[in-house]
Amino acid sequence: MRGLWVDAFGPGLKTRAQVAQMVDEAVKLGVNTLFVQAIRRGDCLCMKSGLPLATDPDLEKNFDPLAIAVRLGHARGLRVIAWASVTGVANTAAPNTSPLHVMRTHGPDSGKNSWLARRPDGTWQEGSDGWLDAGIPEAADFMVNSVTSLVRNYDVDGVQLDRIRYPDGGAWGYDPKTVARYAAETGAKGTPIPGDPAWQAWKREQVTALVRRIALEVKSVRPTAWMSAATITYGPAPRITDPSAFRRSRPYTDVLQDWPTWVREGLIDLNVPMNYKRDGVADQGAWFDGWNSYAASVRTRADGVLAPLAVGTAMYLNSPAVTAAQASRSVGAGLGWVGYSYRSPTPGVIAGQQTTAQGLESVGTALRAKGEPLAAPLRWTAEPPSLRGLMGRVVGTAQPGGRVVEAWQGGKLVATGLTDGSGYYGFLTLPAGKTEVRVSGQRWSDTVPARGVARLPDLLARDVAPLRR
Predict the structure, then answer these.
(1) What is the distance between the alpha carbons of residues 66 and 116, in angstroms, rounded to a whole number?
(2) Per-residue pLDDT tens digits for 63-97
(3) DSSP letter (8 states) at residue 116
(4) Could you report how far apart the first and last alpha carbons of the chain are, in Å?
(5) Whole-model pTM?
(6) Strand runs (DSSP E) across 78-173, as ranges?
(7) Which residues touch 341 (CB under 8 Å, ≥6 apart)?
(8) Which of 63, 104, 177, 258 is the most buried (most CB within 10 A)?
(9) 266 C-beta neighbours (distance < 10 Å), count
């Protein structure tokens, strides 16, 4: 896989002419996949998602950027994956003006109806940004429906989840509804301190549950859709020889993103670590190689399948020669490559010393040189490894979240999981065949299909078992 991120903050998606030019330049560059930003900040550069249209004076009227990008990209042999910012929904410096935007309906002034992630003192801004709290069930429902709508309404080849985490800093999740839910599910007393390991683990599970449910809903609409995530690689990489090292890394402790678990459980088909490092700056070159090696070491899923992995690099931070070198090291290790971004392919473009077209040409020359990753154009035709699943929901209880769910096949326990705040559960690495689900004293048998998602009927919970164990 050779990819290019196309973001919504500069030229590339705002007019029909820009989209046509972007596709032409991507083909010339030699990539085979476009990650086209659709959901930006609780809004969409598309017209059929259920979200308000992005507020941008440069956006052409009566124009659906995602639809045109898919049509033109497919016509040129490119795969087009809809890129979605999930929990990151607002920027106060450039707010969406629609009265239907989530910041108007469930924003900071919505009282008990607010869905925002908050610090212990109640503040919600991280710089100029606002984020939804994955621990609020209604907010999670909103995020699931928003992303799934992209697959339901557009012929995209998949979705990529970005900003699928809590904000930087760790001290988030203090909306009173979230704290009350944590106490109800775990029995914890009082307000947890930010560094409480149990509190952090619970919030981390809320993010994972959100990824799980999006994956199951996407696969239920289209089993062949790629489920991807742009994952965090802050700081030095964990040591491969230490199985617990990731649990001390910044992605795990700071933003509560457990992407090795997402890979292992088949929640994402394609991991794209945002390995944004600068060769030659302190230890960053070694960090880049370390994260590549670590991500490659955790590619094996619970069912033994090796999950695809593509390395995301920051073209905007590096010279074309360094971009080519990082891409070459990634591809040489048997991994894919994705460059960020079409709008900012070189530091020279960021500094105003080159146009975007000039920057793309200089990067393309480096990437297409003899022996470099894009020297021989390739098609990416693989199918995603997760083509089937099983999902359901627990109802009839005041505390649907945090319930242990077991999947049994042939008399053997084959998987366990937890329900989310709305009672949903599911699995994506089960073998096809008859499966029994056990949760809260209830049992139900169904068949996991060879392709597609089996959706079990709602199970009425009987509160005869602890929520967790």
Answers:
(1) 27
(2) 999 999 999 999 999 999 999 999 999 999 999 99
(3) B
(4) 41
(5) 0.97
(6) 79-85, 88-91, 129-131, 158-162
(7) 4, 5, 6, 7, 315, 316
(8) 258
(9) 26
